[in-house]
Predict the 3D structure of the following.
Amino acid sequence: MSASERLHGQVAIVSGGASGIGLAVVDRFLAEGACVGVLDRQGGALGDLQAAWPERLVVVGGDVRDGAAHEAVLEATSQRFGAVDTYVANAGIHDMWTRLEDIPLDQLPGAFEELFAVDVLGYLLGARVMAGALRAAHGSMIFTASSSSRYAGGGGPLYVAAKHAVVGLVRQLAHELAPDVRVNAIAPGATSTGLSGLSDGEVGRGSLLDRPGLMDRVAETVPLGFVAEPGDHASLYVLLASADEAPFMTGTVLPSDGGLDVRRSGRHHRAQRVAGTIGAGGA
């Protein structure tokens, strides 16, 4: 089967699809023949994306913390292209490795609420809105987890806890939605993206792009010796979206992390104490 046929005739929705891993997934789904709806709060980027793919893509501006935004993208996508087969929950933010003891006590509740609202509630709202359509289509949900769903060090306690929660969500939804909907996740490791931090208060602000030299330091902790580009993960989303290629997979979290399970071997042993860098990937 040629690359342009793997998702031919399928319809997908991607949250956080205007940048980073989400954009790479959108581009790959389109290249594989799918039609795609994108939910994102980056208005300018959405306009550029729509202009690049006017025939097979619709965009909706909105915040994943708003259930109505998920309803809007489902309605717009299904009206334009028909029944939705795949939902990719990808939007996320990071805590910029802020340690628990460095979070002022009075700011901890707000930081928790913001990060978990985007990284966990946003996934729950999307899944709730999409579940009925995906049941009818016998479709697929795919969540962007992170290597931080398996290891410490890829963020602070808020981010790592949220990504562990995503794995629990995948497993529970795989149980609840079987046999109609397959529910899986990808756990990217160190990836060169502009993943942003918190916006409320003074905790965990900024983005990965604000840290010069970070990706070079991260690469030293990765057994394969390099940091991924967003597109390096995209084929795994295609695999899970395809009922032909992954018909017997549900409740699965696929790592795409450069081999973190073997990171203590060889030349990488010296890098294990590089603080706050392991597994800086994610949505």
